[in-house]
UniProtKB/TrEMBL annotation:
Belongs to the iron-sulfur cluster assembly SufBD family. Pfam families: SUFBD_core. The lineage of its organism: Bacteria, Bacillati, Actinomycetota, Actinomycetes, Kitasatosporales. Residues 135-362 form the SUF system FeS cluster assembly SufBD core domain. The gene is sufD. GO terms for biological process: iron-sulfur cluster assembly. Signal peptide: none annotated. This is Fe-S cluster assembly protein SufD.
Length: 392
């Protein structure tokens, strides 16, 4: 996409981040498929794998990983919600989208039983659906479907903790007029590996909001994707990540506008500290020829707190029609602002407290999008703990 697609004031930064305008990240090495055999074993030279440390995926990418572990799963939901364990032949599986890389296909080919969580039409939940997944070591594969009927409203919190190697697919299917907020928290132990594809199918006039929070894990690679099933759909994708010593955290997003008069907004922010901390953000937005009236924007901001950390930030826009409301993107990465720190310290704020306030301020806008006090408090406490550890 040419520079003129950028809105006034949008910036890209290449001094610390790698920022590029191209369409190559939307071109996968193989078409989407449920069959792992349709995907070649990646070698790291492919566009969708060039940032990922394949040797740290514990065999998820080459077929050597076998289900050998356990995960403790607990679901708490209001009585009106149906929770089912189903077989691979259930027709509700795969409706939101197919796997787009070999790991996601491996996950789909390897799970034994899937979970389907259904919110009936017109039901408005007053309490969140809470899903707790606690890794107990070894390798596990999973598949979960969350389905909202027409005009239903729900909040879902998915919490990942513990240790292990996890590959999974998660589907969100929204009926017409439905409203869904999903908060996915990755708070794994430092040795865990987690790869997951999130597929959302947004119905006519439906609203989907995703908040992805990533802290833990040795390698975390998430692939949120949005498609629209009817005009008037809205999708908001927010993300916060804090990448520490040696961690690799990768978020690869695709919003596929193939339906008229739909809207999307993407905003991800990350902070990094420590030697070999590596964050990757790929934001792809595809506006197809039929998607007239589209309004979309994507933003990535990164704050580098120490030397030795690296960010790769790649926003991509591909537009096939000129009949749109708006489309733009922005990416910027900067170091910790010593002037802000000095300003606070000159007014009597201790250095550690000043540093905490600056980082909290950086994340404040996205923290507010969570909308759940307990999750917000936990997130802020985790940020404080990460900062304290860096100065200990």
């Amino acid at each position: 996409m040419a520079d003129q697609s950028l809105p006034a004031g949008a910036t890209t930064s290449g001094s610390i981040a790698v920022a590029a305008e191209s369409t190559v990240a939307t071109r996968m090495s193989a078409p989407p498929s449920f069959d792992v055999a349709d995907f070649p074993v990646p070698h790291g030279r492919e566009e969708e794998w060039r940032f990922t440390p394949l040797e740290r995926l514990r065999g998820l990418h080459d077929g050597t990983a076998e289900a050998s572990g356990g995960i403790k799963a607990e679901i708490s939901a209001p009585d009106v919600v149906t929770v089912e364990t189903v077989g691979r032949d259930d027709s509700r599986l795969g409706r939101a989208g197919k796997p787009v890389d070999r790991v996601a296909a491996q996950a789909y080919s390897s799970f034994e039983r899937a979970t389907v969580v259904t919110v009936p039409k017109e039901a408005v939940l007053t309490e969140p659906v809470r899903v707790s997944l606690h890794g107990q070591g070894g390798t596990t594969f999973g598949h979960t479907v969350f389905e909202l009927g027409a005009f239903a409203e729900a909040v879902i919190v998915i919490d990942h903790t513990g240790d292990g190697v996890r590959a999974a697919n998660v589907e969100y299917v929204l009926g017409d007029g439905a409203k869904l907020t999903v908060v996915s928290v990755q708070d794994w132990d430092d040795t865990a590996v987690h790869c997951s594809q999130h597929n959302a199918l947004v119905g006519r006039d439906a609203t989907f909001k995703s908040v992805v929070i990533t802290f833990g894990g040795d390698v975390v690679r998430l692939h949120p994707r949005v498609n629209y099933a009817g005009p008037g759909g809205e999708a908001e994708l927010y993300g916060l990540f804090f990448t520490d010593n040696g961690q690799h955290q990768e978020h690869r997003l695709l919003v596929d506008h193939d339906t008229p008069n739909c809207r999307s907004n993407v905003a991800y922010k990350g902070a990094l500290q420590g030697q070999d901390a590596h964050a990757v953000w790929i934001g792809d937005v595809l506006i197809r020829k039929a998607a007239t009236g589209t309004d979309t924007y994507e933003l990535n901001r990164n704050l580098v707190l120490t030397d030795g950390a690296r960010v790769d930030s790649v926003p991509n826009l591909e537009i096939e029609t000129g009949e749109i409301v708006g489309a733009g993107h922005a990416s910027a990465t900067g170091r910790f602002d010593d002037e802000q720190l000095f300003y606070l310290m000159s007014r009597g704020v201790p250095a550690d407290e000043a540093r905490r306030l600056v980082v909290r301020g950086f994340f404040a806008e996205l923290v507010q999008q969570i909308g759940l006090a307990d999750v917000q408090e936990r997130l802020l406490a985790k940020i404080d703990a990460e900062l304290e550890a860096s100065v200990a």
